[in-house]
Amino acid sequence: VIWRYDGKKPDTLGPNTRLYKWIPQNDLLGHPKTKAFITHGGTNGIYEAIYHGIPMVGLPMFADQPDNIAHMKTKGAAVRLDFNTISSTDLLNALKTVINDPLYKENTMKLSRIHHDQPMKPLDRTVFWIEFVMRHKGAKHLWPAALDLTWVQYHSLDVIGFLLACVATATFVITKCVLFCCRKFLKTGKKKKRE
Q: What's the rounded Cα separation, in Å, for the pair 146 and 131?
């Protein structure tokens, strides 16, 4: 077990666990003896695990992590654990599941094959687009139209202002109608009392 950990060494650490302050995660996931990956579910870690075909145990905490782990669980490439209620038994069972159940490895390898199946390598694609922009003098035809909008148009402040004016006008008209009706009924009620 290789664990990225920065702090005092836990007293209950097993003899087969090695602690490191920093680990080159991508290299570790690419090692042929790597069987499972315990992750918080960050995007980079997910992509690195998919790239190398490593099943995951997810402990998402915030932001995009719960969704990332949910997607991997749906694809059959991960087991999700709740960070707030996890026990050592839960973690052990999850690890045994992703290591011993061949479906997790098969599903992750399927995702890896899909990820690797590209018409050109990423570096070649990057070089192509850099040269494309250079050949076309900045490739202004690819620039978003938003660059030509004013600040007010870009943030739709004119539309928001119009909608707020409509809401204010409707509120004013409804309030005046309600007040008019209340006054009419009050005058009618007073006239009936006098009679």
A: 24
Chain centroid to Cα 30, Å, comes to 24
Return phi, psi of residue 20, to 5°.
-135, 145
Q: Collapsing DSSP states into helix, strand and coil, what is residue 51?
A: helix
d(CA 23, CA 175): 66
Structure-token pair, residue 52: 């190398």
pTM recorded for the entire structure = 0.66
Neighbours of 98 (CB within 10 A): 22
Query: What does the pLDDT look like over 79-132, one tens digit per residue?
Result: 999 989 999 999 999 999 999 999 999 999 999 999 999 888 889 999 999 999
Architecture, CATH, for domain 2-117: 3-Layer(aba) Sandwich (3.40)
List, in sequence order, every residue forming a beta bridge with 3; answer none if it has no partner.
19
117: left (phi over 0), alpha (psi -120 to 50) or beta: beta
Closest CA to 78 of 48, 50, 52, 51: 50
Please state the domain extents for the chain.
2-117, 118-144, 149-194
